[in-house]
## 1
Amino acid sequence: MDADILVIGASPAGVMAARNASAKGCKVLLLDKKEAAGVPTHPANTFFKGMFDRTGEEVDQSYVIKNLKGAYIIAPSGKNVIFEGDAYFLDRKKFDEFYIKQAMDAGTDVRFGIEVLNVLRTEGGFIVSTSKGKIKCKLVIVSDGINSRISGLLGLKPIKYPKDIAWSLEAEIEAEGIGEPDLFEYYIGNHAPGWKSTYSPCGGNRATLGMYVRRHGMDVSDFFDAWLERFKKLKGLDDVKIISKSVGGDPIVAIPGEIIADGVMVVGGSAAQSGIGYGMHAGQMCGDVAAAAISKDDTSKRFLSEYRRLWNNEYRTEYYLGRFAMETLRKMSDWEINGMMKVFEGEDLTVLGGSPFNQALQVSKMILKNNPSSIFSYRAIFRMK
Ligand SMILES: Cc1cc2nc3c(=O)[nH]c(=O)nc-3n(C[C@H](O)[C@H](O)[C@H](O)COP(=O)(O)OP(=O)(O)OC[C@H]3O[C@@H](n4cnc5c(N)ncnc54)[C@H](O)[C@@H]3O)c2cc1C
């Protein structure tokens, strides 16, 4: 099983890295401790076309369960704004299988049911211990998800603000007609400190409910239970059947830290590159640079830093702006969030594209036009909390 490149973890990012490096002629081995693609299924199962388009891939309807038209963002007062845009609820198992097949077609040797236990540096590469024996490789791509154990073994801290991982609980639910609506619903406010609760319809009588919380520990079940009760009242439901529950961490504003070292690249959730589409795009960059490193026989940190440079150019500003906005939201009271939402009510939010400067300008115009006093809500930026 020796390889030029060993990818640890079949996350969306890891699979893309493996596919791209294989397509450029490298001998790539992708290992995952799961028994098969999508088993167990990861709870991340939705995305917006606008984000996915950054990968340059086409959304394939074979893995889409439901096409949606966007999302409501809902304030504690119940007032909402709509973000319009194509969005998808995925059959995550089919989605994983689709991209694993692409990696295999490109030449990746994909093996499930193998856990990587240890990674040791040697002259010119690594010796990797797994549950099924030892492997030699020249370069390691770490894609083992949030709380990356392998990065720790290699002495890396790939997440800059680990305390800001949003710990989450997502439940698949069943109730009459609950899957029918065409928009996701994201509820912000102090009931979900630091991020949001969600309702994602996936057709017929099925939907998911999610709770994402920052800085209140990893167990968010109390927050989820309160959200479920509120949801039942909001939708006038006497009973909601819980089909399954999943927990995990979303590094939405945790920001990539040390993601490269000599012979090592970290990608996806393990590198705080949150989101399916954004993770896949980072995986493509990682795989391309890894392939160039193998062909030039130079796996030094210096050479691999091209991956960091590409990611910085594309995403750094966006991730830091996102963090700034979410930190402000985390510190706001419900009253301040309600005031802020009035600014966006009835506005065409599609104008909020383009450069960060353009977006700031558009938001400033809306504040002045709709609710100038809401500017005081933003004093939360300076609050210590
Ligand atoms: C509840 C929840 C819901 C979310 N919903 C969405 C969503 O709807 N849309 C969205 O874009 N993002 C969502 N996210 C964000 C999500 O974190 C990312 O989009 C992405 O799916 C995370 O993938 P990952 O890179 O962390 O790796 P994962 O998909 O977790 O993959 C890591 C893989 O590594 C394997 N592995 C780990 N250790 C080893 C080892 N030692 N040896 C071998 N294999 C190993 C694991 O088995 C696993 O398959 C959600 C996050 C959570 C927690």
## 2
Amino acid sequence: MTRKTTLLIMAIVVLVIFLPAVVVSIGGRSGLPFQSANAPSAQGESESEKGGRWQVRLYRADQGEITVMDLDEYLVGVLLAEMPSSFETEALKAQAVIARTYTLHQLRSLGGDGCDKAPGKADICSESTHCQAWLDPGSAAGQGGSGSEAFRDRIRKAVFDTRGEVVVYQGRLIEAVYHSTCGGKTEASHALWSGGVRPYLKSINCPYCQHSPHYRGEILIPFTRLAAALPQDVALPAASGDELVLEVASETPGGRVKTLSINGTLIEGKELRRLLELPSTAFTWEYREEGLFLITRGRGHGVGLCQYGADGAARAGKSYRQIIEFYYPGTEVTKIMP
Ligand SMILES: [Zn+2]
Ligand SMILES: [Zn+2]
């Protein structure tokens, strides 16, 4: 895979991370009950589970139709869209278990919210801006845009080797959110989303993502662009930074900007991120002649698994289970079906 493709895939990853659907999911259900003992089994086949295999109703936004497929078949397409081919096998396996957990949490037949994007009743859609990124492994092969056959084989093996495995906290499926790169410290979910504290989505120090191209970034925002992007009630100097005063009004547990004061007007960090298209809400700044110079850290919301961190941890010899238990403290990986 080319570096360009890798970057494109990571861009998709970031879009997925930003999506409101995940936020809704976070703020909603308290988690579906799942224990290996009481997990639904092949008996009493439902639409979501035929022949002992979970079925996913995927809305393919590109085709405008719903396709029903096996969960693991679906997961291969998710990993293809989410993971660079350079990533270690244990990182692929960690992502497979997390994406499986996230998807089961969405399944309507299990009480999940599903996806409201489709005209029919779908569990999830392929739109990176709405649910979870997904690429068709079959057609991607022909387009040559999604990695080699060898990479797809590695993905299939990662999904197969973790078959039936999910992440649970106190016997319930976790809200398995993830992001590209935390930049050294992950974020607590309650800093961004409603629904209270989730002990397994707390801020932790991550020493593993320094090799990410998104670990640190620099962006110069000309004053004219700043004025155009910010809400009208933010008082800005006309053309220079002479009278511009930025202050962090409040910080998140993960050391990100929760609220920023711009010349006395408060603006939420996540709103600023959206308006200025910043990679994350972790940033510092310098006032320059030409504009506001931002030094950013990481990419994505920062909650849950750090994908580049997962790769770094795998390079350091950690197993996929160790990686998951590191990024979602207090959880465990369990097999809910054979
Ligand atoms: Zn959707
Ligand atoms: Zn990290």
